[in-house]
Write a structure and sequence with these properties.
The protein contains two helices and six strands. It is of the alpha+beta class. The two termini are about 25 Å apart.
Length: about 130
Amino acid sequence: MSTRAQVRFATREEGVSFSEHPNAIHAQFYIHYDGYPEGLGVEIAESLTKYQKIMHWEIESLDARHGDLEYIYYIWQAPGKSTWISIFEVAGKFCEYSDKYFETTECIFVGEPSNIINKYKLNTNADG
């Protein structure tokens, strides 16, 4: 089963909280599968901390939106400041009376890349 996500790059700005969607993004990518925090979240964090390559991202126009996303990630950057990441879980439904799709999001994580690794990376050294 696919877990779809979008990754959006935003500039850290005064007065904009990491737990809200920014008005301006500079690039965005679509990921068709493994978009959950234990997969994509850890992959993004390890790319930023260990310079590991990320695969299978599709670049998109800045106004592209999807009705099947499960997660939206923001990578917040600015010169001279540390990088932070926000993860939003997406819940959507169609209104039966208007056939319109309504999307709601909940911020489930805000922190630096190392915090994602500590929270979501599965312990691969566990005895099993």
